[in-house]
Protein: BON domain-containing protein
Amino acid sequence: MTHWKPALALLGALMYGGTLAGCGGTGSLLAPAAAVDDSTITAGVKQAIGRSTELKAADIDVATREGIVQLSGYVGSAENVATAASVARTVKGVKSVRNDLRLK
Structure:
């Protein structure tokens, strides 16, 4: 009967080790919830610009990559250029704004 003890001990160790192997996490599961994806940022900037009475009629395109927002298109005044950048900076997740807006 003693020859079964090593085999049972090995089997027990393998079973215990197998259950622990499933406990390892992946980095993606631990990613911070505060991170906002680029499409969400773009949508937020477009909404914020649309709510601005000064910028509603402006022809502004918004693109985002890694939290960096790029504004392009045409606006009616230099004040609108500055306002668009300020509005974009208020959106959650925006790291910086690249303002390529032009005057009509």
